[in-house]
Amino acid sequence: MKLDELVINRRKSMAVARMLEHFPKDLEVIAGYQGIGRQVYISDLNRPGLALSGYLDYFASDRVQVLGNTEIHYMERIAPSLLQYRLENMFSFEIPGFIISRSHKPTNLFLDMCNERGIPAISSPLSTDE
């Protein structure tokens, strides 16, 4: 079953915890566990590459954010102070959660911020297009 098959729209929502129940073998919460009650209203996903680069004008913050190779490697390569600034700006939005593809390990700063703000970071062995 895919996320969009769970029929999410503006009148209905699904907690991140329910999403985890539907995909228990594939998904593992690696940070922000206290936020699994956050609601997902839109089944579409977002790749937050532009948000990580600092452009937030059209950031689809109401969607689950998917971090793939590009986003993970970008976070590893920028200065920690700049990464913290960019993550603080991005995390100022009400993000339902993050899915990290290919079981990548995000930076400790990212994981710490997910824990501090109660935003679930969920690891998946799947690639971003699966």
Summarize the helices and strands and which ones pair or pack:
Layout: E1 14-15, H1 16-22, E2 28-31, E3 39-40, E4 45-46, H2 49-52, E5 64-67, H3 69-77, H4 80-91, E6 98-100, H5 108-117, E7 121-123
Parallel strand pairs: 4-5, 5-6, 6-7
Antiparallel strand pairs: 1-3, 2-7
Helix pairs in contact: 4-5
Characterization of the model:
The chain is of the alpha/beta class and 130 residues long. The chain has a single domain (3-123), classed as Udp-n-acetylmuramoylalanyl-d-glutamate--2,6- Diaminopimelate Ligase, Chain: A, domain 1 (3-Layer(aba) Sandwich). It has five helices and seven strands, in the order E-H-E-E-E-H-E-H-H-E-H-E. It has a five-stranded mixed sheet. Strands 1-3 form a two-stranded antiparallel sheet.
Note the beta-strand portion: 15-25%
Could you tell me the CATH topology label.
Udp-n-acetylmuramoylalanyl-d-glutamate--2,6- Diaminopimelate Ligase, Chain: A, domain 1
Mean pLDDT: 90
Strand arrangement, major sheet: 2-7-6-5-4
